[in-house]
Design a protein that fits this description.
The complex is a heterodimer of chains A (about 575) and B (about 425). In chain A, strand 10 and strand 11 form a beta hairpin. With about 575 residues, chain A is an alpha/beta fold. Chain A is about 40% helix and about 15% strand. By secondary structure, chain B is of the alpha/beta class. The two termini of chain B are about 45 Å apart. Chain B is about 25% helix and about 20% strand. In chain B, the strands form five sheets. Chain B has a five-stranded mixed β-sheet, with helices on one face. Chain B has a five-stranded parallel β-sheet with strand order 12-11-13-15-17, with helices on both faces. A three-stranded antiparallel β-sheet of chain B has the order 6-7-10. The chains are: A alpha/beta (about 575), B alpha/beta (about 425). The structure holds flavin mononucleotide, iron/sulfur cluster (SF4) (3 copies) and FE2/S2 (inorganic) cluster (FES). Flavin mononucleotide binds next to strand 9 and helix 19 of chain A.
């Protein structure tokens, strides 16, 4: 066994908060008062502070969650694939209702947003093991077996990668033949500056959704004088409809780890952390194994690849159910054992990140791409794609199509081509980059998918999620699903997002009831714009994006739902509904 | 000493030490930027309320989280930005349950003050009426969750002597609230507790037994605007010759008649008013029905039963201009305290379980001739289109008549800061 590097730097105890909470959650099924008090004493903080952390993450509970804790996905894709029936089946079979535990304390049923399995919905996690492509019969079978004492891990599914499309010839970046450590061998000859130059030349831009040039982040962090620097891999993949990082980690974990090592070498870091979302517990052991393999070969630890003085190791931090923790500064807070509240822009992570040290945070796909770029060379990488947007991109396709799964497209492919590839027969409403992205109509299908054009007039950017809905789907329902998601997942510390998402949901409910006219639509749009302009982080800034684009692009759809005899003076008021409660007293 | 840098706020050249907080720089130069969470000693700044949103080098951003640097250009005073900031404060009123006349902090409340400064008479958003508790468990204070705007000041600023937090956020999203650590709270000294109440920009933290002593008129925000030259609304319409008496109708729906009392409060000026206007349907005349079309309708109170709704609709049909008069009419006001409680609970408490009721001897009244009670109290603008809003509980007589005279004859008027109140 090679020795693990002795870390000179000790992360403070508080950073263990989430791990400790997970331990209690998993051993006892919840976090009881004793555990809470113990943690407050251990970390020397008040109990309310521990309670504040627990209540922020929806996988942590203060009440028992049953011997088998079931999280059913309620994302929009699940909804169109039969969520309602599955929900009823679970309730019928277990005798519990959602949000509670059955009387015997055996089954706890809970809802959770997208669990990264949109290509095999409806799906659920049972004790954090994945169960995919559910139907009523399958649910019945699963529950009866669990009742017989079969362990969930022995009957869970192994989600398949569903890699549906890879560019021809040698153009694949991510799915070309992989050999552990090939890229790492090139580190020393390139040198830190050379690596950054190569990444710069490749024009690689962040794949977490913001498309920030990767080299700039690395360079800025490299420039910082600091005794300690960190590399953080954002494996929180919370954007509904996205599952590309899942596939990369399932089958190419080494590539991600390699990317982190290269980054660590380039910026002068000694410690890397993978922030893995709680929904992906089932991937953890795979990644652990890959890390261990790297340590054995000497790719992690001391003097990596025989580069004198290059010590680097990586640990995994599990998230605990919070979409906003994918936002980089919220992620840092979470890593520090706190509530995942995004920071202000007073400091940037490259200046003061994890524990106030300079930190690079990149997405899984970004690290994988970086590793492959170093391996194949920026020139080869630039062979694919289009000028200004070189390379390939992983797209997670789901919804109403025959072949949901991962598509590695060359930048520049049109929406029409992608729709054709995945067998979307009757596309009507397409949600690009997830709920925080934008929607497009089939009329726009000749737009290219690329990272050109910031304003996205001609080309369209795609962060990874591509959800297709056909004519049968109700757009208002889609938008309501999104607004419920943002309302739940908002961290709650800034006004426009905390209150705005709630207000928008209320207003959409009126729309669904037909209590609506053009003025209301315009009002909704202006409220969305307000959230966009004033929210503190990307969540609030983007939460109303799809709504705003839907109002513009599907205007006729809404008009058809308007109140026809609206006269502008007397507003529509549903007297029967408003007096229904009182009518119960009619004897 | 830090370097001096040159920045521009609304075209005005300003010099300031590099790295200084933009909010402070603006204040020192007499430029008013609304703010609620900003608290000078806390660094990094909290940046939670967003009411200081400006355009910084062309991009939207809060002034309080910006460090000044050479060449910084800031836009504060455009119509769009003013409306944006106003909307954010309106959002806080829509989100919380703010019943100023019943609030200890009224008159000394930063949120209320900001509402006055920005001239908020009504919020453009639907009131959410979220059910929140009042936490009486802390030994020294009461936590009124209905009023908290989640500014984070108390979380970051109030610690016990041994460095432990007393307040912390709980939950997330719209369920977020500020939890109190009862053990730590008990350790605070009286002075520390009072300080917590003071730094809270709203009436959320109330220390038991400590009253905010100033009488009406002498409270912190009663008289004076902080904006040096607050622009007063001065419509300049030509006053047409008064040839005919204007006709006014008034009504009290789910209100307390306080607004009507206030209307009569202009003393002898009332005689002048009577010269100029006549009243049609109104409690003042006791006309039960409209006899003619009216120029203006003044509506006190919101709608709590089916009859209120019908009456309000009649007003809309018969009046050229409809004015919501007072808080209850504007957004629900005091009666809307029941809005976060199911109707059945309210009725059962009032008619069946109240201590003065005979057990088993009472019923909840229901008869086809009685108006039907609505599931909650509705603001007038949820039922009909409202043209103008006059805030206050009740609005001052001057405010009411100045507004009415303006609407009827375009008479110039300015509502003084001291006349624009929510209590
Ligand atoms: C609400 C929100 C959620 C996000 N979730 C993720 C995520 O799950 N994974 C991710 O890589 N980036 C996510 N991001 C983007 C990150 O903030 C950050 O830009 C990214 O991790 C940087 O990596 P990149 O430059 O490689 O894209 C999210 C951003 C926001 C505002
Ligand atoms: S925008 Fe939403 S998630 Fe982001 S800081 Fe504000 S409340 Fe939190
Ligand atoms: S005084 Fe302030 S805190 Fe109190 S109810 Fe009014 S706005 Fe809310
Ligand atoms: S209690 Fe007061 S100080 Fe604390 S967050 Fe709420 S409004 Fe701010
Ligand atoms: S004062 Fe700037 S965000 Fe609150």
């Amino acid at each position: 066994m090679p020795e693990i590097i002795s870390k000179k730097f000790q992360e403070p105890p508080r950073t263990q908060m989430l791990n400790k909470l997970w331990q209690f959650q998993q051993e006892r099924g919840y976090i009881d008062d004793d555990a809470l008090k113990g943690l407050a004493t251990e970390f020397g903080i008040s109990e309310i502070e521990v309670e504040g952390v627990i209540s922020f993450y929806h996988f942590f509970h203060r009440k028992p969650t049953g011997k088998y804790t079931i999280y059913l996905n309620n994302s929009i894709v699940s909804e169109i694939k039969g969520f309602q029936r599955i929900m009823e089946a679970f309730e019928r079979e277990t005798g519990a209702t959602f949000g509670t535990v059955d009387r015997t304390g055996t089954f706890g049923l809970f809802l959770t947003p997208c669990i990264g399995l949109s290509d095999q919905e409806p799906a659920a996690l049972i004790n954090f093991y994945p169960f995919t492509n559910l139907n009523a019969i399958k649910v019945k079978d699963i529950i009866s077996r669990l009742k017989q004492g079969v362990l969930p891990e022995s009957i869970c599914d192994a989600p398949s990668d569903n890699i549906r499309y890879v560019p021809a010839e040698d153009k694949s970046v991510f799915f070309r033949k992989y050999q552990t450590g090939q890229a790492l061998g090139k580190m020393e000859s390139l040198g830190p500056q050379g690596i950054i130059e190569e990444i710069k030349k490749s024009e690689l831009a962040g794949r977490g959704g913001a498309f920030y040039p990767t080299w700039k982040k690395w360079e800025a962090t490299r420039q910082q004088p600091a005794s300690q620097k960190f590399v953080v891999c954002n494996a929180d993949e919370g954007e509904p409809g996205t599952f590309k990082d899942r596939v990369l980690m399932n089958s190419y974990a080494g590539s991600m780890i390699g990317g982190m090592i290269i980054c660590g070498y380039a910026i002068g870091a000694t410690q890397g952390i993978i922030y893995l979302r709680g929904e992906y517990w089932w991937l953890k052991s795979k990644i652990e194994a890959a890390l261990q393999e790297f340590r054995v070969i000497g790719f992690l630890g001391k003097n990596i690849c025989d580069i004198k003085g290059f010590d680097f190791d990586i640990r995994i931090q599990m998230g605990a159910g919070s979409y906003v923790c994918g936002e980089e500064t919220a992620l840092l807070e979470s890593l520090e054992g706190k509530r995942g509240e995004p920071r202000t822009k007073w400091y940037f992570p490259v200046e003061r990140g994890y524990l106030q040290y300079p930190t690079v945070i990149n997405n899984v796909e970004t690290f994988c791409a970086a590793e492959r770029i170093i391996e194949m060379g920026a020139d080869a990488f630039r062979e694919s794609g289009i000028p200004g947007s070189p390379g390939t991109k992983l797209i997670s396709v789901s919804g109403d199509c025959k072949l949901p799964g991962i598509y590695e497209i060359e930048w520049g492919m049109t929406v029409a081509e992608l729709l054709e590839l995945c067998g979307a027969e009757d596309p009507y409403y397409i949600q690009v980059s997830g709920p925080s992205g934008e929607c497009i109509t089939v009329k726009e299908k000749f737009r290219r998918i690329s990272m050109l054009d910031l304003l996205a007039r001609k080309d369209i950017r795609c962060g990874g999620s591509f959800m297709i809905f056909n004519k049968q789907r109700d757009i208002v329902k889609i938008l309501l699903n999104f607004s419920a998601f943002f309302k739940e997942e908002s961290c709650g510390i800034c006004t426009p997002c905390r209150a705005g998402n709630f207000i928008i949901q209320r207003k959409l409910e009126r729309l669904q009831d037909g209590l609506f006219n053009e003025a209301d639509l315009q009002e909704l749009k202006s409220w969305g714009t307000l959230m966009k302009n004033t929210s503190r982080c990307g969540l609030g800034k983007t939460a109303a994006n799809s709504l705003i684009s839907a109002i513009d692009k599907f205007h006729d759809y809404f008009v058809a739902r308007f109140d026809k005899d609206f006269n502008g003076l007397n507003l529509k008021f549903d007297m029967a509904a408003a007096t229904a409660d009182y009518e119960k007293y009619k004897s | 000493m830090a370097n001096l840098v040159n920045i521009k706020i609304d075209g005005k050249n300003i010099q300031a030490p590099e790295g200084k907080n933009l909010m402070l720089v603006a204040r020192e130069n007499g430029i008013f930027i609304p703010s609620l969470c900003y608290y000078e000693h806390i660094e990094p700044p909290l940046g939670t309320c967003r009411t200081c949103t400006c355009k910084i080098n062309g991009k939207y951003g809060p002034a309080c989280t910006e460090k000044v640097h050479e060449g910084l250009t800031v836009e504060v005073d455009s119509a769009e930005l003013i409306d944006t900031r106003k909307a954010l404060v309106e959002m806080m009123f829509a989100e919380g349950n703010h019943i100023c006349p019943a609030c200890e902090k009224s008159g000394n409340c930063d949120l209320q003050h900001m509402g006055y400064e920005l001239g908020i008479a009504v919020t453009r958003f639907p009131h959410l009426f979220k059910d929140r508790i009042i936490d009486y468990k802390p030994s020294r204070m009461v936590m009124e969750h209905n009023r908290c705007i989640k500014c984070k000041r108390c979380v970051e600023e109030v610690f016990t002597d041994d460095g432990k937090r007393v307040f912390n956020y709980m939950n997330r999203g719209n369920e977020t609230f500020v939890g109190v650590d009862y053990i730590q709270e008990a350790k605070l000294s009286e002075a520390q507790a009072i300080n917590a109440m003071k730094i809270c920009p709203t009436g959320a933290i109330i220390v038991r037994g400590v009253s905010m002593t100033a009488p009406f008129g002498d409270r912190e925000f009663d008289q004076q605007s902080t904006q040096q030259k607050k622009v007063l609304k001065k419509p300049t319409l030509n006053r047409p010759a008064i040839t005919e008496k204007k006709i006014i109708a008034t009504v009290s729906l789910a209100g307390c008649f306080g607004c009507h009392m206030s209307m009569l409060d202009i003393d002898t000026e009332l005689l002048d008013v009577i010269e100029l206007v006549s009243f049609d349907k109104s409690p003042l005349t006791d006309f039960k029905q409209f006899t003619t079309r009216c120029h203006i309708g003044l509506v006190e109170g919101g709608c709590c039963n089916s009859e209120n709704v019908e009456t309000l609709r009649k007003f809309r049909e018969h009046c050229d201009i409809l004015v919501a008069l007072g808080e209850c009419s504007v957004w629900g006001g005091l009666p809307s305290m029941r809005n976060s409680i199911p109707l059945s609970e309210c009725l059962e408490e009032a008619y069946l379980n109240s201590v003065t009721n005979e057990p088993g001897g009472n019923i909840i009244p229901y008869h086809e001739d009685l108006p039907k009670i609505l599931d909650r109290v509705y603001a007038c603008n949820e039922i009909v289109k409202i043209d103008y809003y006059i805030p206050g509980c009740p609005p001052s007589a001057n405010h009411i008549w100045k507004a009415v005279k303006n609407l009827l004859w375009g008479e110039e008027y300015s509502i003084l800061y001291s006349e624009f109140k929510y209590d």
